[in-house]
Amino acid sequence: QVNLVESGGGLAQAGGSLRLSCVASGNTFDIDAMGWFRQTPGHQREMVTMMSTSNTPLYADSVKGRFTVSRDFTKNAVYLQMTTLKPEGTGVYYCAARGRSFYYWGQGTQVTVSS
């Protein structure tokens, strides 16, 4: 079992920035990639970004050039620096860790972008 604990998020104005953090504990040896998903009102959960240990990070087209993912492998952590925030990015952001058999999820953190 892998436990993911998120921090960060909150309220920001359009054009502003926020940073999300997530730390994994437990059977972290099972993790191949970490990243972030989000669920905005009226939409299904979608990938924002994922970063494996060896590949270039993947980003959703909607966040390319504005969001940056990074990992600290010594801390089993993943971070999401979000800049130039847009109101349509308001939603719950989930930390995700990809294991060999399935994904692990954090509890989610609310991000609200005001116009």
Number of strands: 11
Written as H for each helix and E for each strand, in order along the chain, the element string is: EEEEEEEEEEE
Major sheet: 7 strands, mixed
**Which whole number gives the mean pLDDT?**
96
Report the structural category. mainly beta
Which regions contain 5 or more consecutive residues with pLDDT less than 50?
none
- Count the DSSP helices: 0
Strand residue percentage: over 45%
Gap from first CA to last CA:
40 Å
Task: Provide the helix percentage.
Answer: under 10%
Radius of gyration: 13 Å
Shape: globular
Overall description:
By secondary structure, the protein is mainly beta. Helix content is 0%, strand content 57%. The strands form two sheets. Strands 2, 4, 5, 6, 9, 10 and 11 form a seven-stranded mixed β-sheet that branches. A four-stranded antiparallel β-sheet has the order 1-3-8-7, with no helix packed on it. The model has no long low-confidence stretch (mean pLDDT 96).
Task: List the main descriptive attributes of the protein structure presented here.
7-stranded mixed beta sheet; single chain; 4-stranded antiparallel beta sheet; 11 strands; mainly beta; 115 residues
